Amino acid sequence: MQGNSPDKTTILLHWLLAVSILFLFASSWWMLALPLPSDEFTYRVLPFQLHKNIGISLLVLLVILFTGSVNAKNEKVLKQPGWVQKLALLDHFVLYLLIVLTCLSGYMSSSYSGWDTSFWWLIDLPAWSEENEALNILFSDIHMWTCWLLLAVIAVHTGAALYHAFLNDGIIERMFRL
């Protein structure tokens, strides 16, 4: 960290996570509208594999972002009232937790679905067992609900960003400096 701004890598990872999450939401609605796979409709495999690859990459990016920002302190954030600091900490904790749970539940659902997961078509990730419809449905439901909760927390996060933008307290400007 330099001065009171996050480093360029942190800012870039933040926005890469944001764009990836938006893409995952949009792509999920699109790919679920595709016809179920059959001998005639095999094109559904590519969108699902891309969705899984971006989700797994998102988890890796989150780990990188989290490990780099755990000890990061920001003077402008520290000047905020205590309740604002606590809400910001809670917001980020819940965001990180929901991203992790969403990514892991998606992977677990896929693992029990009988469909292989290949990380960017280079590394075959292990399936946890043979196809298991009950576990696939369980993890798919968890994935869906964590996605909806994540969307709600993103709305709160965006609202907080707008709050700081209207206050013009410098919190927002620090996340746009590359």
Structure description:
With 178 residues, the protein is mainly α. The chain has one domain (8-175): Fumarate Reductase Cytochrome B subunit, CATH 1.20.950. It is built from five helices and two strands; from the N terminus they run ααααββα. The chain has a two-stranded antiparallel sheet. α2 (45-69) runs antiparallel to α4 and α4 runs antiparallel to α5 (133-167). The longest helix has 35 residues, at 133-167. The model has no long low-confidence stretch (mean pLDDT 77).
Notable traits:
single chain; 178 residues; mainly alpha; Fumarate Reductase Cytochrome B subunit; two-stranded antiparallel sheet; 5 helices; 68% helix; 3% strand; elongated
The CATH C-level class name: Mainly Alpha
Low-confidence stretches: none
Major beta sheet, strand line-up: 1-2
Helix content: 55-70%
The span between the termini is 13 Å
Question: How are the SSEs placed, and which strands pair?
Answer:
Blueprint: H1 8-32, H2 45-69, H3 75-78, H4 82-113, E1 117-119, E2 123-125, H5 133-167
Antiparallel strand pairs: 1-2
Helix pairs in contact: 1-2, 2-4, 4-5
